[in-house]
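re: that complex we talked abt at group meeting.

here r the seqs, copy pasted straight from the sheet so there may be weird spacing, ignore it
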Amino acid sequence: MVREMMYGEAIATAITEEMQRDSSVVLYGQNLAMTERDPMLRKFGKKRVRLAPISETAEMGVAVGAAVTGLRPIVELWMSEFMLVAFGQLINEAPRLRYMSGGQVKVPVVFKAGYGFAAGWAGQHSNCIYHAMMGIPGLKVALPSTAADAKGLMASAIRDDNPVVYLHHYMLTLDKGPVPEGDYVIPFGLADIKCEGSDVTIVATGWMVKKSLAAAELLSQQGISAEVIDPRTLAPLDVKTIIQSVKKTGRLVLVDQATRHASAAAIIAAEIAEHGSGALKAPIKMVTALDTSIPFSEPLENYVLPNEEKIVAAVKSVLARQAATV
Amino acid sequence: MRNKKSLTKNRLIWMYNQMVRIREFEQRVKRTFVEHPGVIRGHTHLGDGAEATIVGSLATRGDSDLAMPSYRCHGYPLVLGTSPRKIMAEIYGRKDGLCAGFGGSMHLADPEHHFPGTSGIIGQSIAHATGAALTAQVKDSGQVIYCFFGDGSTKQGAFFESLNLAAVWKLPIVYVLENNHYQAYTHISLEDANYQAGDPLSKKAQAFSIPGVTVDGTDPLKVFAAVGKAADRARSGKGPSLIEAKFYRFSAHGNAITVPPVPTQFPEHEAVEVYGKKAEFAAAKKRDPIPRFRSRLIRKGILPVAEAKRIEAEARAEMDDAVQFALASPLPKPEEAVKYVYA
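got the structure back, here u go
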């Protein structure tokens, strides 16, 4: 059975179902379960659903210690930048403990946060910082772009025996989509072809998948067939699916809401340059945020972020490059 | 309620034995730098001087309780039952090490012996131990978590955040603040506001409205009484306590940080090497917890001299065996390095 639901609702559904399935899953975070009326609190009780003080280092560090000793904590961090306050726990504790113990312990924890909020949140609450996490051995990073992926990746994140950063995009929260009911788990490291095409490969994550699909629609009206791929997890990263697509299309546009040198796009570009460049008929093109902090005022914010027009222009430039070289 | 009277003669002798074992182990680690230069890489931190606090605390634990210290972590697993062979082999970076050579001195872990692991970053393991206490509470396991850290750690955000959270959630944990008077190389007088004001460091507990007690950390029985009371409180669901155990670290913070090919060596203690306070160091040595506990037990007729000597000889033999075992253990195969990244 498939049910239409919002992206945000799909995440909550996955958490609820996993908490029903496994009593070792606990959920806590700031401004959460504040009254007895809270539905998660009523369903799972005070032991498993908790309000935490505004203490990211303790919230994340406690989750690490709880995970090592047998719980599966989900920490609701709300905004990905709040993790920066406790980046040591994320980067230098959670993914290190298993390795340093010679495989004796595991750290099954989910750090959940929204990101990329392009709605007037200015420089400190709207960033894309996943590049700093995706290269850390021991850590996994998931970025769902649809309601179905949101559910399936959350279920996978909770069941994973490793620390997972689950980043949901704020701009997708209210987007509706079909979501399979019941047990629905999307394996990590499996990219999804969101739209098949033959002229160009576009790789994007999160909100940029939606922008890329809109751009693909505009391009198809002009007779250009774009394939849109969403890696869904940046760690592990499904390079194989991207290479297969590039072998078919010969052209690659990478769309990323992050700034250029702090983007996942730059990493993917390097992988394709080393492992798939034989298939490329034109240089790789990256569409990223401009190298600024995110500005507050709407026209400024729009100016620095990738959009359909910028993606269309990038696709046309890689196609033109091919025409020129042929 | 635990008090000194609850300790049997055999238990008191056990405590002395554990203190001697820790001291002997740490001395063998230190001697390795001289006898086998280059065998120990990286940064090694010794707990000599902390024996009374470690053993006095762990003597109060129940069979399933966990100990979670900082990176100065050799002594605790020795008391919990980890083989000194495996600890020494880990410190030497050998295949038969406790963590197969992946962690080293700072990152010992032995979950089978109630020792889930440590962090090499000051203060961060306080949050991990607090998380272990969350597990105990959620699973209703009846466990108490013994969280050990130094005075330096109490200047970390992780300390303040964890103690507040543990107090709010009433977690079953005892925070044992090992005040060894030096934050790495810096004397406590230069970095602690309570100390500068003439207050005990246990005053920090008042910030979280939890019990805070300062004890003589060179007296295992005083530590036993204070930590035992805090553990009882934790186990009965009343939440955390902070115990400041005051003692003096007898070795420098760690071995000197040298760049290869220069082998690492242990310098003099900071009191002498940095601050030129030979008298301070000599006075601290006079309060060495081990000979004091030894003569006390002998004086009270609990420990016959012959048995004390036997315990000391056995510890020497046990740790000598650990050194020989570690030296004989092969280095790990290089390609093993890609193991254990993900579960």
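couple things i noticed - Chain A has two domains: 2-180, 192-325. The radius of gyration of chain A is 20 Å.
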